[in-house]
From TrEMBL:
Coiled-coil regions listed in the entry: none
Signal peptide coordinates: none
Family: Belongs to the glycerate kinase type-1 family.
Official protein name in the record: Glycerate kinase
Length: 382
């Protein structure tokens, strides 16, 4: 009797890719049960790792060169399968692409717009845009510029990139964007419900994470408010208070206002892309995970989404992680039966980062011994 395991983990940020996590856990399971069938389905929540999850699911990567968050060229890709494309803001213009320190006033989302434009110009009629990991607070102005928009000041000159310059915008030209995206369906992977401005807005909540000082936050919030006024005048609708408008420094706002985008849970979108429901068929156990299991995990992160989907199919779920900060009751409420952390078998954090693969081998062995072997015995004796 061959047990079947599905490993659907996110990356361990700064240490291991989702594919590496899956391979290491698989190797550990097979040390205990050599005949086990272990399938890998790397997942992500719409941030960095989304392209890798799409590639693992059979999408082809199409290389493009775009403008990085602070104007340097960046080599990225979009993923394509038929007429469907996946664009990852994090890889094009996210924090991981900053060449040096954060630049909260100048950083731009332009590269994501350029990658989206490349996909549309190549014939893609449906685009999934993952916006996690943004480096900018530019209200999505860069995204629109990457698609062909012009932001002009009172003298008719182009305004500089970045949220710090948005207060100079007198008008925006969107005709080229509208022609380019006509007939294109854009879905944004978004896991926050923040509005664009105010105490829960993009600048106030997420600006400090991108290097913004208190003075920067005030300047950015005022600039975003002015930008919302200009875009409302150009489009005839004001969506600054729409849930998710503040996502990715306001990229959610621009996508709603100009691209007519739908905002959906990032992990739900990725699970749809990888065909997760079909992969669950016949599985005896799902192993999910990410670098740290904590309260954020329960609010739209990959392990919670995987556990919810597996739970609907009646498949038990365990998790692997670097460190676990959730008590058993919180995990069970999220549909995770148990968590296996690197820190439980190796207290040295540096070793967890550098020796994650052999440590995951050990966790895979424990998962097999504690969850698969007992279930096999029950089946054999039934």
């Amino acid at each position: 009797m061959q047990p079947r395991v599905l490993v659907a983990s996110d990356k361990f940020k700064g240490s291991l890719t989702a594919a590496e996590v899956a391979a290491a856990v698989s190797a550990g399971v097979r040390r205990v049960l050599p005949d086990a069938v272990v399938d890998a389905a790397p997942v992500a929540d719409g941030g960095d790792g989304t392209l890798a999850a799409a590639e693992a699911a059979g999408f082809a990567l199409v290389p493009v060169t775009v403008t990085g968050p602070t104007d340097e060229p960046v080599r990225t890709s979009y993923a394509r399968r038929g007429d469907l494309a996946v664009v990852e803001l994090a890889d094009a213009a996210g924090l991981v692409r900053l060449p040096g320190d954060p630049d909260p006033l100048r950083a731009s989302s332009r590269g994501a717009g350029e990658a989206l434009a490349a996909a549309v110009d190549a014939g893609c009629r449906e685009v999934v845009l993952g916006i996690g990991g943004s480096a900018s607070t530019d209200g999505g102005a860069g995204l629109l510029r990457g698609l062909g928009a012009r932001l002009l000041d009172a003298e008719g000159a182009d305004v500089a990139d970045g949220g710090g310059s948005l207060h100079e915008v007198a008008r925006v030209e969107l005709d080229h964007v509208r022609r380019r995206i006509a007939g294109v369906v854009v879905t944004v992977a978004c896991d926050v419900d923040n509005p664009l401005t105010g105490p829960r807005g993009a600048a106030a909540v997420y600006g400090p994470q991108k290097g913004a000082t208190p003075d920067d936050v005030r300047r950015l919030d005022a600039s975003l408010g002015h930008w919302a006024d200009v875009l409302a005048a150009a489009t005839g609708a004001d969506v600054r208070d729409h849930p998710g408008a503040g996502a990715a420094g306001g990229v959610g706002f621009a996508a709603l206002a100009v691209l007519g985008a739908e905002l959906r849970s990032g992990i739900e979108l990725v699970l749809d892309l990888v065909g997760f429901e079909d992969l669950l068929t016949g599985a005896d156990l799902v192993v999910t995970g990410e670098g740290a299991l904590d309260e954020q995990t329960l609010h739209g992160k990959a392990p919670a989404g995987v556990a919810a989907a597996a739970g609907r199919a009646g498949v038990p779920v365990v998790a692997v992680c670097g460190v676990n900060r959730l008590d058993p009751a919180r995990m069970r409420a999220a549909g995770i039966e148990a968590a296996y952390a690197l820190a439980d078998i190796e207290p040295d954090l540096q070793r967890c980062l550098t020796d994650g693969i052999p440590l995951l081998h050990q966790l895979g062995e424990r998962i097999a011994a504690e969850h698969l072997v007992p279930a096999l015995r029950i089946k054999e004796n039934a």
